[in-house]
Design a protein that fits this description.
single chain, 202 residues, 7-stranded antiparallel beta sheet, 13 strands, 31% strand
């Protein structure tokens, strides 16, 4: 029969192992995020809790900005979580609209990539006013070319999203991962949104 000291050590060892595994999974496999704003409506709502695939674009080497074992690079249409370029302590979530080498512009709320209008069935416009561009690039900007190792991202709630139109490009090394699935959804003014739980993010 095991002594109390042996049992205590086994429990402690099991707890420490579980914590280490949880930290490794969070750092390299999946991580949970909560949607705090409406910039991705209707795809993601305030109060959605999502899991992000952290290894698909590569595993970050600790204490460096380098990544290894990348399955693929971000593609147009991917919804990504990344460090906000103007404040890396914050995480943003947006959709990739253009990748390196693409020429992107927007004319009267229509996005063009390499001269072709982009089909975007997932976006929302809730302001009928068209802003002319210049100091306010919301509805008209470009054309601009996406630099090497950069992405141009925009929110699906196109008239109410603070994104690459305002602050520029996302560096590949600042990406945390690809949005994967909604595992929980809570309406702050109501109750649990059961219909959204388990929904894949596209």
């Amino acid at each position: 029969m095991k002594s109390k000291k042996q049992l205590l050590w086994e429990y402690t060892e099991a707890i420490i192992t579980a914590l280490i595994l949880a930290l490794l999974i969070r750092a390299y496999v999946v991580q949970a995020f909560k949607i705090p704003s409406g910039s991705m409506i209707p795809t993601l709502l305030i109060g959605d809790h999502i899991l992000v695939n952290k290894f698909i674009y590569g595993t970050e080497i600790p204490f460096t900005d380098k990544k290894i074992l990348a399955f693929r690079r971000p593609e147009k249409g991917d919804i990504i979580v990344f460090k906000y370029p103007e404040n890396p302590k914050k995480d943003f979530i947006k959709r990739v609209v253009a990748i390196e080498g693409d020429v992107i512009e927007e004319r009267n709320k229509v996005v063009y990539v390499n001269g072709q209008p982009v089909t975007e069935p997932y976006i929302r416009h809730n302001d009928s006013i068209v802003r002319s561009g210049g100091f306010d690039p919301r509805d008209n900007f470009g054309p601009i070319t996406v630099p090497k190792d950069k992405l141009f991202v925009m929110g699906d709630n196109r008239d109410q999203s603070y994104d690459s139109r305002y602050w520029g490009f996302v560096d590949l090394k600042e990406i945390r991962g690809k949005a994967l699935i909604i595992y929980w959804s809570w309406d702050p003014n109501s109750w649990v949104r059961f219909s959204r739980i388990g929904r894949l993010i596209q």
